[in-house]
Amino acid sequence: MDVNEPFRNPNLAERLLKELAADPQPAVIMEICGGQTHSLLASGLDQLLPRTLELVHGPGCPVCVTPVEMIDKAIHLAENRHVLFTTFGDMLRVPGSNSHLLAAKSRGADVRMLYSPLDALALAEQRPDKKVVFWAIGFETTAPATALAVWMARQKKVKNFSLLVSHVLVPPAMRQLLSSPQNRVQAFLAAGHVCAVTGWQPYQAIAEEFHTPIVVTGFEPVDLLLGIHRAMQLLRSGCGRVDNAYGRVVRRCGNEAALNRIAEVYCQCDRTWRGLGLIPASGLRLRDEFAEYDAEKIFDLQSNHAAQTGPCISGLILQGLKKPSDCPLFSVDCTPEHPLGAPMVSAEGACAAYYHYKTR
Amino acid sequence: MCLAIPGRVESLEQQDGMLMGRVDFNGINKMVCLAYVPEVQIGQQVMVHAGFAIQIVDEEEVRQFHQLWQQVLDHTSDRRQER
Ligand code: SF4
Known about the structure:
The complex is a heterodimer.
Chain A: H1 10-22, E1 27-33, H2 34-42, H3 45-48, E2 53-60, H4 62-65, H5 68-78, E3 83-87, H6 101-106, E4 111-113, H7 117-126, E5 131-138, H8 143-155, E6 161-167, H9 170-179, E7 187-191, H10 192-198, H11 201-209, E8 214-217, H12 221-237, E9 242-244, H13 256-265, E10 266-273, E11 277-286, H14 295-298, H15 314-318, H16 342-345, H17 350-358
Helix pairs in contact in A: 1-12, 2-17, 7-8, 8-13
Chain B: E1 5-15, E2 18-25, E3 28-33, E4 45-49, E5 52-56, H1 59-82
Antiparallel strand pairs in B: 1-2, 1-4, 2-3, 4-5
Residues 312-314, 317, 324, 327, 329-330, 334, 340-341, 343-344, 351 of chain A line the site of iron/sulfur cluster.
C-alpha cells in the first residue's frame, strides 16, 4: 500500500471541508513549508476552504531565503577553475546580485546538479584533480545528509571535498515572525519533514511563549486539512500548544541518530535570511574540528554585503504580509521563465506556485 | 527542498561502514543511505529525502487512520441512504 494514499481520499477531504465550513471562525494560519504551499494550490484547497480562513505562506523555501551575498559567494567559488561546484538543482537559477549559477556554467564553470551530498563525496574521490565543493543548503531536513557527507569525508580522509554551508533552522524564524509587531499569524502548520528530523518537542516552548497553536502537518490534501482542523480546534479552545497531525512520520523526539550527527558536525550561528534579515542562532555552520572541510575557510570568500535591490517584494511575501498576486510584477514582468526574485525560481516558491496554479 | 517520498526497503548492506539499502519507490529502485534509521528492517517503509531515509513510516498508524475514517464515511453514506 502507498502509505500516502488514504491522505488523498477525496471523500475524506470533502468531509473535513464540510466540518470546517460548519463552524466558521476567522483565523490566519501560516503554513511554513513551501512544499505545503504548493500542495494547497495544486489541490485547489485554497479555493475550497471557508472564506473566513486565511492561509498565509511562510518562509519555508530554502532557495527563497538564501541571501544574495551567499549566492554571489557560490558563483565566485564555481568560477574558480580548480573547483567542481555541486548542489541541488533548485539553486542553479536563483539570481545573485548580477548573475546566477547557470550563467556561470554557460561561461565555462564546472557546476553540477546532484541528488545527494554523498554523490558529491563520490565525485571528489573520482576527481582528485579537482576541489569538489557541495553547497549545503536547506533546513533541518537536509542537514543530516550534508553532515554525514562531511563526516564520511573525514573518515575516508578525502581532502578535496568541502561544504559551502548555508543551512537554516525553522524555530528561530518562527520566533522572529511572531515577535514582529506586524505579525498576523494566529497558528502555524509546522513543516512535517523538518519535524521528522527534529521532532515536535522544540516547538512546545514557542507555542507556550507566544500562546500560538502549532500543528505538525504533512503534505497530502487530507494531511493539510487535518492540520488546519486541529489548528482551529486549538484556537477555539485557546490552547497554545503543539499537536502532531503527521503521526505516521513524526515522533516527539525526532530522529535521534540524525540529530546526534548534526550536533557533532555543526553548531548554531547567526544567519541572514533573504527578506527577513539577520536572525540570531538561525543557521548551522561547521564546527572548528571540521574547518578543513569548510569552503568559506579554505577559499578566500569575501562577503560584499550585497543588498537585495529592485522592486521584488519577496521579503514581505516570505513574512506572510503580502501575497504573490499583490506584487505588481507578478506574471507580467516576473515569470518562471524570467524570474526577478527567488520565490519565482524555486519549485517551492510561493510566486511560482501562484503562477502555475492561479494564472491558468 | 524538503520533499521526502516513501519507499519500501528491499535489501540492506554495509558500504564503507555505513548502512545502505535498496529502496523501492513504486517500481523504481534506488540505493538509499539508511544510517539514520539503523533499526530498519527489510519490508518496512521509510521516508527518503536527498538520498537519506529520515524516518521509518508507522504503517500501523496509517492502517488505524484508514479504518477509523472508512467507518465514519460509511456511516455517513448509510445515513444518507436511509433518508
Ligand atoms: S512575483 Fe517576482 S518580483 Fe514579485 S515578489 Fe514574486 S519573485 Fe519577486
